[in-house]
Amino acid sequence: MHELIEERWSARGYDPDATISTEEITDILEAGRWAPTWGRIQPVRFVVGLRGDETFGQLAAALNRGNKGWAPSAGALILLCTSDAADDAKLHDYGAVDLGLAVAQMSIQAVSMGINPHPMAGFDASAARAAFDVPADKRPMVILALGRLADDPTLLDPDVADRDSQPRERLPLSEIAFAGRWGEPFTAAK
């Protein structure tokens, strides 16, 4: 597995004084822009806020309680929206897939630059829609926090420091990768 994938994790302990430049944000947005897309329709759109600007404040205000305590320390918040239509199941489904691919590529790009990405679904999509005049045919799905991690975890909120110090765990492949039938673990050829 590539080291950038191994290094990626959704931390919360951002340094509230660290900044992210517009050049860095542009590189991260370019990674999202170049993500694979169904039928080349390119349905993903971005609303970008840098800490201290009005957009960032509106994005932070839309966060759910669990994210409001730590995400405002990020250097940037990006709302990702995708095309949607109630009468088009394919667009609804594949637009979400395209958005997920954009988040993944943006995350790997961020990690390559020493920036920690944390995608969040915990936000009020209706509030975000209203704040940014998101059109009815677009669906707000994710706010991506981007920040530099604090050097001294003892300066963080104890809950944030505790959560960030927990080991990263994933289910073993034998429980999620199957061959032949559902539940029969995939095994590498010997």
From TrEMBL:
Keywords: Oxidoreductase. Gene3D superfamilies: NADH Oxidase. GO terms for molecular function: oxidoreductase activity. Residues 5-49, 63-148 form the Nitroreductase domain. The keyword Cell wall biogenesis/degradation does not apply. The keyword Oxidoreductase applies. Pfam families: Nitroreductase. It comes from the Bacteria. Belongs to the nitroreductase family. This is Nitroreductase. It comes from Gordonia polyisoprenivorans.
